[in-house]
Amino acid sequence: MKPLTEEMVSRRDSANREQDSTACQPRETAMISRPSLQFLVTFLLAAAVNVCQATAGPPVSKLGTDFGIRLFREVAASAGERNVVLSPYGATALMGIAQLGAAGNTLKQLWSTMGYQLKDKGVPLALRHLQKDLTAKSNRDIVYSANSVFIQRNMQLPNAYLKNYRRAFNGWPKQIYFQDATMATYLINKWVEIQTRGMIPKFLRPDVLDPVLTRMVLINAVYFKGLWKLPFPIEATHQRVFYKEDGTKILVPMMSQSAKLNASEFVTPSGVDYDVIELPYHGETLSMYIVAPFHKNVPLSALTDIITASLVDEWAQSLETVKRQLVLPKFSLESEVDLRKPLMALGITDIFNARKADFSKISTSEQLFVAKTLQKVKVEVNESGTKASAASAAILYERMAPFEVVIDRPFLFLVRHNPTGTILFLGQVMEP
């Protein structure tokens, strides 16, 4: 994937001016006869950490990111022309927790699909260290990540599982009565609300938890708040036309700023031109990347289908600092994604099968399987990032207007932790 040459950019600029004038599901009987191990995951605004480097082979951070991206591609394919956002790290973290309790072929499917084993030497310790680094106050941008295990009050977890869980995720189970589904839902929702600073107050509906079958709920909650390094002037935001993928036009508030940005133009193996622009947060360890096809008649799937962890690394390394007038929609996305089918499409099937699931490292007395995998994500993007910052509100003007990049068509966005390459959020905006 190579950046466009100057000649290609020139041709493109000219063209732009012209263009502008089951795996099988468990049987119902099996689901009734076996207790369910329900996995639920919540995320907010942008997300947390990345898994570490193992003792050999590719960095686990890259393997985890690549797994999360592949999962997003499955989610985006089923979403079609709808907005969707996923936390690749969050999904990876939850499947990592699943690895701790899995055995046999169930475990093999998890680690072979994810590309690493959580039991490998050095992985649990590095997980904790990376989470600590990402959530350090010195980062300036606020990142908070928390994991929790809610278990049935009379259920005993093996000491080995508790030890391994604490080593990797620095958490401890909380006992709860799932028979009182209303109270259990309230307690879980309250925990999520606290961890997400009130942004997700009602994560679960009471009907999600089965009072008879539910034995365990695993949750990862992430909170992120970051200010742009270069805020967009509020007075420069105006209504402009956004072209949806079906050709219809809508008016949306578009932010605008003239600044030196890291940006470049690329071309896919099939010849599709596209832009990549980096918007750093003020802490400078996290950035949002905007990725959009150059031509309005190109479906966003042309980019979604090719994205990988290696390609994102290539983008980050190939960007050049250029003067640009960037016009970008304000957007706020909130999505709840059922990860069951996307995970099964990647080869993780046994965990959902009441007859095949093997979570004997959690319980040998009860045969558990995963009944639900939910991820709820909320992302808001505005002029300041999340709130105003007077320190960087200066607006500079030049006599000659810089080249304008208008993101007025469907686009991808991702929030990346640059030191490790971890992708915290990845989404598609089809309609701001």
Automatic annotation (TrEMBL):
InterPro entries: Serpin_CS (IPR023795), Serpin_dom (IPR023796), Serpin_fam (IPR000215), Serpin_sf (IPR036186), Serpin_sf_1 (IPR042178), Serpin_sf_2 (IPR042185). Residues 69-432 form the Serpin domain. One of its GO terms (molecular function) is serine-type endopeptidase inhibitor activity. Residues 1-25 are annotated as: Disordered. GO terms for biological process: negative regulation of plasminogen activation; negative regulation of vascular wound healing. It comes from the Eukaryota. Residues 1-20 have a biased composition (Basic and acidic residues). This is Plasminogen activator inhibitor 1. It comes from Chiloscyllium punctatum (Brownbanded bambooshark).
